[in-house]
Design goal:
The protein has eleven helices and three strands; from the N terminus they run ααβαααααββαααα. By secondary structure, it is mainly α.
């Protein structure tokens, strides 16, 4: 009986998450778990602190940033169904080697769809249980949303610095302009920050960041966007 009750609870939880995925397929999020956690951390030092976040629709985000983010984070975004297992394995091996060398460099093996699932619903914990839930949510998102909607949501909720979330807040924070006006170089630089945004917010002249920006700029020309 206890096992049956637990199974029923898990099923109800997944149904509730699916209903939230349906909601986000047409409505913008207010404050994601990542934003809320960041705001709590900021308020520990400054009680009235607020994260910077402003939703902008897909057509008001520069095509340069869309191409740069796909080139940087998920080159096969338009083709895959949500998860790329080989990319996860390669990123795991790379990040382990970098950690052993004491380097802050990180490579994301998760697709944009996976990152969106994590950003919208989960935390930054690294348990196998959380990863499993992320995969379930990813397939829900891919089943319900178009690639355009997935990218629109991701660009609006991704973290781009300390307390900075979304393309519009990032464009204003770094370049004092709207997300619609970001140039190719500016977009490539923002995309290169995504694996570790708070770190690179403090180290904007990092040689790695400059090198990564050049690499992404070259890749952008071959990227298709929804």
């Amino acid at each position: 009986m206890l096992l049956l009750a637990a199974a029923a609870g898990i099923l109800l939880y997944q149904i509730a998450l699916f209903l939230m995925v349906l909601w986000y397929s047409v409505m913008p999020p207010r404050l994601t778990p990542f934003m809320a956690a960041e705001q709590r951390e900021l308020r520990a030092a400054q009680p009235d602190a607020q994260v910077r976040y402003e939703w902008v629709p897909y057509e008001q985000i520069s095509a340069n940033l869309k191409r740069a983010v796909i080139a940087s984070e998920d080159a096969n975004f338009m083709q895959h169904s949500g998860v790329e297992w080989d990319a996860i394995r390669k990123a795991w091996d790379y990040n382990r080697r970098q950690a052993e060398k004491g380097s802050a460099r990180r490579r994301g093996g998760s697709t944009i769809s996976q990152q969106l699932a994590k950003n919208l619903f989960l935390s930054d914990s690294r348990s196998y249980l959380r990863k499993g839930q992320e995969l379930i949510l990813t397939y829900m998102i891919e089943a319900v949303m178009s690639k355009e909607r997935i990218l629109e949501l991701y660009l609006n909720v991704a973290q781009w610095g300390t307390g900075v979330f979304g393309a519009q807040a990032a464009a204003r924070h770094y370049y004092k302009q709207d997300a619609a006006r970001l140039s190719a170089v500016q977009s490539a630089r923002l995309a290169s920050m995504l694996p570790n945004p708070a770190y690179y917010d403090r180290r904007r002249d990092s040689p790695y960041l400059q090198s990564r920006t050049r690499t992404i700029s070259q890749r952008m020309r071959q990227v298709a966007i929804p």
